[in-house]
Design brief:
The chain is α/β, with parallel strands linked by helices. It has a single domain, classed as 3-Layer(bba) Sandwich (FAD/NAD(P)-binding domain), CATH 3.50.50. The chain has 15 helices and 18 strands. The strands form four sheets. A seven-stranded mixed sheet has the order 5-4-13-14-15-12-16, with helices on both faces. Strand 14 and strand 15 form a beta hairpin. Helix 2 packs across helix 10. It is globular and about 65 Å long. 35% of the residues are buried. The C terminus is likely disordered.
């Protein structure tokens, strides 16, 4: 196979998922990650609609479900901390939700035996040659690969080296997000809370570990330049932005000063005209960072599936495969970007009036009448990209059979087969009934139906003629008989219990 040696940048979600499928099709993969070890932090990520099918085809759905958060409803609070309304779990947590760190661990375990992982290093230059891509690293020796995949997130180094600086593709949404872990002092049990003040939002949720809760801080800030690596300055900024708020905010800010897993990210989107150039392709946030609510993780794993499948289908011809990959993935990426563009105003409306309008609208959407429409909206972006079938090599026939068995187990149970009189249902040692005979024109003959006291059997004779089928008698003394046609002959059809009335040009029954 051509272009069999592939380098992937990024070991979070998109990178290992791409390595998984490339390994499945016989490619050799190397993953380089700037972090010194596998990252275990981050908020929970969810999967919806067609995205769940990718997990099933990977054979990882059961493992993901064993580690899911099983989150319940998200309760929206007013300024006094009182419950206003709730968002259903299907809207906030999808069909299955799992902490990002756990998903990263599962993907790493599924690929580490067939993928070379290099931690604590990064790509510093990419030089394309007729035979491949010459790659230099910050610490390791230079190497040459056939193809390079950028799966290194919103601030992708591969994208910057291949397509240009981040500022050319980044659109700031005017909001910022920070998160950390805190003690579950409210005793939450698989429930989330959201508290708002103008331009600020606080989320608090607890799922598997009842002793801990995940905290999210969202705030508006146009043109604010924050160095995410300067944690001291970041803590000071958060303390200033959320100073003076009520509810449980002061206590959470106190915990924030000591949190060891604090992370920060601006709410922004990456928009690109194309996801590939030469021998380089982008997957996930590196190519189309949507932000919260854009089904980014699920979409990244679907894109990894498509990229590997198209490379295998093209026999490693990256020119053909990359063009198909771009056209296949773009509709789903655009749908995610569109869906997530209002994430900031939803999480932290800038005014008190905006908070009231959001609450009023979502209270209406969560009513019994509109709940179905809300759930339909939540999976719209996830179902844009269709999960195609790609041929699996014979070497992985066992894994493919295992995935197929998993799909069969998860399907909706079939209806019980219909039994025929005097026959056993099909599939239980009995043959199906003989095919129905054909009549003129090749159409099937009408199937006989069982006679009842008030319904003659089909095919046993015309109504009004001699027939063993009992007919319903007419009213006493009316002389009711069979229906007749215009010439007085017995008319085909069930007797209604009364003769045709006499009329000009038609004989009576007398």
């Amino acid at each position: 196979m051509r272009n069999a040696n592939i380098l992937i940048s990024g070991a979070s979600i998109a990178g290992p998922a791409t390595a998984f499928w490339l390994n499945r099709y016989g490619f050799t993969t190397t993953v380089v990650e700037q972090a010194p070890q596998l990252r275990t932090g981050g908020q929970a990520v969810d999967f919806r609609g067609a995205q769940v099918e990718v997990l099933r085809r990977m054979g990882l759905l059961d493992e993901v479900r064993r580690n899911e958060t099983a989150m319940g409803e998200q309760r929206i609070l007013d300024t006094d901390g009182r419950h206003v309304f709730s968002l259903p779990a299907s809207f906030t947590a999808g069909e299955v939700e799992i902490p990002r760190g756990d998903l990263s661990r599962i993907l790493h375990a599924a690929t580490k035996d067939r993928t070379e992982y290099v931690f604590g290093d990064r790509i510093t230059s990419l030089t394309e040659t007729p035979d491949g891509v010459a790659v230099t690293f910050a610490r390791s020796a230079s190497r040459t690969f056939d193809l390079v995949i950028g799966a290194d997130g919103l601030h992708s180094g591969v994208r910057a080296l291949t397509f240009g600086p981040e500022s050319r593709f980044r659109t700031d949404m005017g909001y910022h997000f920070a998160g950390f872990t805190a003690p579950n002092h409210l005793g939450l049990d698989h429930v989330g809370l959201m508290y708002n003040a103008p331009g600020r939002g606080v989320t608090l949720a607890s799922h598997r570990n009842s002793a801990e809760a995940t905290v999210g801080l969202v705030f508006a800030g146009d043109g604010l330049d924050v160095d995410r690596r300067d944690t001291a300055a970041l803590r000071q900024l958060l303390a200033e932005r959320f100073d003076g708020l009520g509810w449980e905010v002061p206590q959470l800010i106190e915990v924030m000063w000591q949190a060891s897993d604090l992370f920060y990210s601006p709410l922004c989107q990456i928009r690109m005209d194309r996801f590939t150039r030469g021998r380089v392709a982008l997957v996930g946030d590196a190519g189309w960072g949507a932000g919260p609510g854009g089904s980014g993780t699920g979409m990244a794993m679907m894109a990894a599936y498509v990229l590997a499948g198209e490379l295998a289908a093209a026999g490693g011809d990256h020119g053909v495969a990359f063009a198909r990959y771009d056209s296949e993935v773009r509709p789903g990426a655009e749908a995610g970007l569109k869906q997530a563009k209002n994430a900031g105003p939803f999480l932290a409306p800038r005014t008190s009036r905006g908070i009231r309008l959001r609450n009023r609208m979502h209270r209406m959407l969560t009513s019994k009448v509109m709940l179905g429409q809300l759930e339909k909206m939540s999976v719209k972006a996830a179902n844009v990209l269709t999960v195609k079938d790609y041929a699996v090599p014979a070497a992985d026939a066992t894994a493919a059979a295992r995935e197929s068995a998993g799909r069969r187990r998860c399907r909706t149970p079939r209806r019980r087969p219909v039994s025929w009189p005097g026959r056993r249902p099909p599939g239980r040692g009995a043959e199906r009934p003989p095919p129905r005979p054909l009549r003129a024109g090749g159409r099937p003959a009408r199937r006989l139906r069982r006679a009842t006291p008030w319904r003659p059997a089909r095919g046993t004779g015309r109504r009004g003629s001699a027939s063993p089928v009992r007919r319903r008698p007419g009213p006493a003394g009316t002389g009711a008989g069979p229906r007749r046609d215009r010439r007085g002959a017995p008319r085909a059809g069930r007797s209604r219990g009364a003769p045709w009335p006499a009329s000009p040009g038609r004989r009576s029954d007398g």
